[in-house]
Amino acid sequence: MRHPGLLVGLLVVLLSGCTPLPTSGPVVEVSVNTQGRGVQIAPEPPAEGMTPVRVVEGFLQAMSDPTGNYAVARQYLAAPAATTWDPGARTVIYDGGLTETDGVVTLQGRERGLLDHDGRFRVLSGELGHDFELVEEDGEWRIGAAPEGVLLSGYIFNRSYAMVRSYFMLRGGQAVIADVVHTPAVDLTPERVLRAQLAGPSPELAHAARNAIPHGVALGPGGAAVDSEGIVSVDLIGLPDNLPDEARRALGAQLLWSLASIPRVTGLRVNADGVPWAIPGQNADRVLELTSQQGYRSLSRATAVDLYGVRDSRLGRLSPEGNFIPMGGDGEPLDMAAISLDGATIAQVAAEPGQVRIGPAAGALTSFDSTVRQVRSAQFAAGLLWLLGTDETGDQRLVTLSPQGEVGVIDTSTLPGGIVDIAVDPTGTRIGVLLEVEGQVQFGLVMMDDARQLSPWRALTVAADSGEVLSGFTALDWTSEIDLAVIARDGAGGSVFLVRIDGSRVQDIGPVIGEPVQVTALPRPSGDSVAIRHPDGQVVVYSAHRTWQTATAHFDWISYPG
C-alpha cells in the first residue's frame, strides 16, 4: 500500500523555513496523436497527522484533478471553505513556492498565465501571494482560506494538463488551422474536444478562420465516445439537412483533426438528431478516416527534411556529416534560398536587386522581379514565396510571389514599428513577427485574413523557466503549426527558445555561444529540428536527439523546407 504522502514528497522538496514547489524541469514534447502526457500526477486525500505545510502541498497537487468537482482537493479544506470554494472562478498557472513562519503557510511567486472557461491560455505577469490560514478541525490541520479558483504550478500544469489542437477552417480556403486549448488530462475526452469545437475559434483566430459547424448546433444526448478501434461516434442536434457536400467535408475534416488530439483516434462517425449523417468520403461503415483527410492540414505535405543553404553564391544542402553538398548553379547572383514544405519548389534570391528565380527543385527556374529590394527574409508558405525587404523609397515591404511570378503586397502599415524578422506559418495565415518599437524589439503575432489584411498587433510577453522575461530577440521561425523557435535572451544569456503561440510553453533548448543572426526550423508536429547561423557562417543544428552539433561547412544562408 502506498504511503499517502509519498507522491507529494516526490514532487516537493521540503526545506527549512521554505518549501519550494517544483516549477521547472526537463520537458520532452511528444506528439499527442501518438502518446499521452507521459507523467501523470495522482492526487491523494489527506492522511492523519499531516503538518500544515504538507496539507497545503497536498491541496496544491490535488487541484490538478477536477474529478467529482475537485473532490480530493476539497478534503484539504475546512468545512466552511470546502463549501464556498469555487474552482470554476479562474485557473492561474504560477511559478513559486511555500514559506512557513510560525505555522503561517503562504504561497509566494509570480503568475505565468490564466486559463479561461474554454481552456485558452493568456499570459500573466503579476505577483502572486496567498495565506491559506490553516485551522484545526477534528484534530487535523485544514485550510481555512481557499484561493480564488484553481492554482497550478507550472510543473504540475505541464504534467497534468493536456493540450488540444482545436482546428477551424480558414476563411476562403479548404484547410484547417489550429487553435490551442488546455484541459486536465483526466478530462481529455471526445466530449471535451466537441465543447471546444462548438465554442468556436478564439478572438485572434476568428480574424482568419471560421467554424465549419453551423451556428446553433449542439451536442446531442448520444454525446461523443471513442471505441476500441479509434472510431469516434458523435451525436449532434441542429445540423441542417440541406448542408452542401463542400460544407459537410469541411465539418468532417475540422472535427476529425480536432478529435485526433486524443490518442488512438483514427476515424469519425456522425449522427444528426440520432440519424446517420452523411459526409462525402466516408467508407462503407459510414466512417470518415483520418488518413483520407491529410489534404486539409498543411503539415501533412511536409516531406522534405534536408537543411539547405547558400555558400559562395551556390545552393547546396547539409550532409549528415555536416558538409556542404552543392546542387549546381548557373553563376547568377545568389544570397538566399527557400524551399517549399514538400521540397518540390525552390526559390533563389538575389537580395539587393530583389531578383528571384523560382521553379521546380529538379527543373529549370524562371526569373522574376519581386518588386522588393534589400531582401532580408525569404520563405515558402501555402505555396507562395514570402519576401521581406524595402520598396524604392526605402520603406519596409512584405510581398508574396507565386511560382508564376504574380506579386501580392501585404499592407504592414498597421504594425506599430519596423519588422526585424518575420516567419509565416505553413497555412500562410498566422505570422510571427519581431518588431522594433521605440528602440526595443518585441515578439508577437498577427493573423492575415483572406483579404490579405492583418489583424491588430499582439505582443506576446513570455518568460523562461528562470522567471526572466525574454528580451533581445534576434530571429524566429516556425517549428510546428503552433510553436516557434526564437533566438532571445533571458537572465542567463542568449539561447534558443521554443515558444507556443499562446505563451503556455517556453522551452529553452540552448544556450548558444556568440550572437547568432538566423534561425530556421523544420515544421513538424513534434518540432524537433532547428538550426542557427552565426555572422561568420558557422551553423549549429539541433536534432531530435536533443543535442546541438556544429556543422563542418560554413553557410551564408540556411533554410529548412517550409
Explain this structure to me?
The chain has 562 residues and is mainly beta. Helices cover 11% and strands 39% of the residues. Strands 1, 2, 3, 4, 5 and 8 form a 6-stranded mixed β-sheet that branches. Strands 12, 13, 14, 15 and 16 form a 5-stranded mixed β-sheet that branches. Strand 21 and strand 22 form a beta hairpin. Helix 2 packs antiparallel against helix 3. Residues 1-38 have low confidence and may be disordered.
The level of helicity is 10-25%
Oligomeric nature of the chains = single chain
Biggest beta-sheet profile: 6 strands, mixed
Question: What's the Cα radius of gyration?
Answer: 26 Å
Secondary structural class: mainly beta
Distance between the termini: 53 Å
Task: Count every helix, treating DSSP H or I runs of 4 or more residues as helices.
Answer: 7
- Round the mean pLDDT to the nearest integer and report it: 90
